[in-house]
Each structure stands twice: as C-alpha cells, then as structure tokens.
Model the fold of this input.
Amino acid sequence: MIEAAPTAADPVRSVVIVGGGTAGWMAASVLSKAFGAALAITLIESEEIGIVGVGEATIPQIRHINNFLEIDENAFLKATQGTFKLGIQFNDWGRLGDSYMHAFGDIGMALGLTPFHHYWLRARVSGAGGDLWDYSINYQIAIRDRFAIMERIGSSRLTGTRHAFHFDASLYARFLRGRAETAGVRRAEGKIVEVRRRGSDGFIEGVTLEGGARIDGDFFIDCSGFRGLLIEGVLAAGYEDWTHWLPCDRAVAAPCAHGQAIRPYTQATARKSGWQWRIPLQRRVGNGHVYCSRHISDDEAAAVLKANLEGELLAEPRFLRFVTGMRKRQWVKNCVSLGLASGFLEPLESTSIHLIQSGVSRLVSMFPDRHFDPALIDEFNRQSRFEFERIRDFIILHYHANERTDSPFWIERREMDVPEALQAKIDLFRSTGRIYREHEELFTEPGWLQVLLGQRIVPARHHPLADGLSEAQLAEFLGNIRTLIDRAAASAPSHADYIRANCAA
Done:
C-alpha cells in the first residue's frame, strides 16, 4: 500500500559550467540538445587560461555522442583536421622488438557459444592458425595504411570495421562551442574570483567574476581541469592517488610534420621510463612522451621525444604535470566534475575524451531535480568509480605484463602488486583462456584478448567446445575467415585517398 504521494518535482532550471575545452563544450552541447529551452546553460571560460590537450585520439564510442548531436562525420573531421583510427599499435611493450595492435572490432567469429579465440588457440597448439591479427579486419586494413567503412565483410556473417578518430582537441572544442551557442548556450568570458555558498547546507549558489559580474545557478559542472576549482577547491571532494600503480607523472608534447603515409591508427611506443604517442592528423603528427620523473629528467625526456619524431619539429615542446587517480567523489552537493577535474588516467588507450563523454551521458540519465537526492548522487559516484577503476586496471595490464630487463622502470612495473580484479582476470586467462566482461566495463573481450596476448600472456588451454571440429573443419573455418578478411582489406582505398575524397581540411 502506498501511504503517501511522491513530492512534486522541483526541476533544475539553470546550469553553470565552469571551464570550456572539450569537457565544458561537450557538456554544454549534450545538455542543450537533451533539455532544450527547459534548461538555461551558462559556460564560463577565460581566454587567458590554456586548454590541456594531452590526447587527440579517441575510441569508437565517440560516434555515439556525435550521432546524438546529429554531427555529420565528414564535416566534423574537416573542421578538426581529423583522420580515422582503427586501433592502437603498441611497440616494445612486452619485450624490445615486440609489436601488436589493440584493433577495434571483433576478432574472427564465434561458433555458437564458443568465442573465436578458443578455436585459434586450439590450432596454435599444432602450429597452425597463423597470427591472431590475421582474423581482424581492422588490423589488416590499418597495417596497409588503408581505410574503409564496412558494416559486414562482403555477404558473410563476419562483422566489418569499427572506427574512431584522431583530431585536434582545441578545434573540436571550438566546433562544439559553435553548435552549443547556436542552440542557446550563453558563454561568459572571465576568471572566477569568488564562489558563493548557501549558509544552510553549503551548496554553491553562484560565482563572481573579475569585474564584479555575478552568475548564479541551480547546478554547477566543474570542467576547470586539474585544478578542480569547485569540486576540490570549494567542496573538498578529495583525490585518490594511483601513482603506486601508474607512476608516470609528466608528459612533454610537440607536433611534427608527416614523415610517411597518414596511418589510420595511433602508435604507443614504450621508452625506458615511460612511453611515446604518435597521433596522425591531416596536417601534422601529434607526439608526446609520458614519463616518470623519478627515472628521467625533463631535459632527457624532451631529448627522447625529439630524437623519435618522424618529421620536422613544428613547435617547441611543452610540459605537463599530473597525478594519476580520481576524485573520491565526482559529484558533491550540487556540483559534478567532468574531464580532468574528475580525475586523470594517462591517455595510453585514448580514454580521456571517452571519460568526458560517459560522464556527460551518465549525468543526463541521472539528472537531478533541486532536491539533489543523496541516493542519486551516490549511484553516480559508484558508477563513475567502477568505470575509472576498470580503465585503470586495463592500463596497468600494459605495464605489468612485461618481460623487459633494460631499465629499472620496467622491472618495477613487472614486480609490483596489481589490483585484485586485474590479477584475477590475468590468472583466469592464463590458465583457461577465458575472458569475462564485468557489468558495463568499457573494454570488451576482444580488447582484453589482444592486450593479454600482445603482452605475452598465453593461455595453458582452450575451451573444450573448441574440440568439436575435426582438424579439417578447423582448418577450413580459419582459412575461410582469413581469405575473406584479406580480400576485403586489399580492396580498401588508402587512408589518405579516403580523406581527400570525403573530409579534407
């Protein structure tokens, strides 16, 4: 029996976003699209405060938010000088000389309830089956410097390509800003000098800018970057430090000219005290060296970066400092944090922009009324923590599962204890070849499979159901998949030609 009627909603009417960049303008764009005129949105940013762009690479999920915002893919790539991305190539991570790719999309094709890789593992015992990546359409296209959009491979049941993008993050923010302002988002220029709070409960009431302008709101979104002006500076959410697992704490970044074909994939090359990224855009290559300051100086790190550019240096290197971890609470009272204000995970798997996107999506699904129910806030924080921790574990895997002996940094990473959930995943795969995706964790079974195998973790056995095929049937099954994928990859145009034909900036 219902004893009392629920209280009437007291809707949030105004949102204030503190900070622009990708986080701020993505939040503004999505909220304005979702709520329309029902929500007054003001974004505060200062031209004097630079944007931290540690990552210009994405994962396929970004296409979901672009579709929600009704963004034309080719127009977006033209505006951001973007290119396509089919995966991430990892060089020298397991051992010096190793190379593998975390390619998007499926690997092979399951038979019934048995994942494909168990059949490949069975074939591998007898020296047959070839390389795992022979069965990845994304890899086979990427390694040829080609690109194509395929829903399926020919008329077969094999799934086609899955892609993401490389782009200039500052241009992406500008692109989103234009759309958001057209949709009615108000931009306020200036620096915040005061944050005003309600005496009764400590909720934020408004902010005051240099010059005296006051901006009030019902709900505040902190996109102020590492500083966390509201979430930490005012509300003291606390920060959970993960540098005992991920000790890289600095990066040096610089653009260079193209030295070869425009690759449709990101490169992450392990160095003695960290790793280096290469992200190909239409007019330049983005480069960065992520490193641990306990093992290498800033000058040495910059020298390593400069020595490993594929083309002419286009701008002087700039340095960034960070602490890997997350806010203990990403939502406190009437303020939620997004982007770098919510936490930082190094961009090894290109998750920086995804974490903004997922945070915004989660916010829309859990958008509060003016009661700001604590149960809703707790659930948002619980889901945010789960996502951060599972991405963290995936990144730790790359470091931990190494056989390098050339530097103390890599020996330390191999010998460190890792989170229990990650260790359980490694142990299960090593002994049985099984991989299970927990709840809605970001990375799928094919992603885990490629990194586990790429980092030299080889299962001791395969699933018993994979023994159901005869040797001849197994060879035919694997051979047919390889043939179909190879033909499809060979027919794709070059990545550069595809860009010229569809989205050249």
About this structure: The longest strand covers residues 250-256. The CA atoms of residues 255 and 286 lie 5 Å apart. The first helix runs from residue 21 to 35.
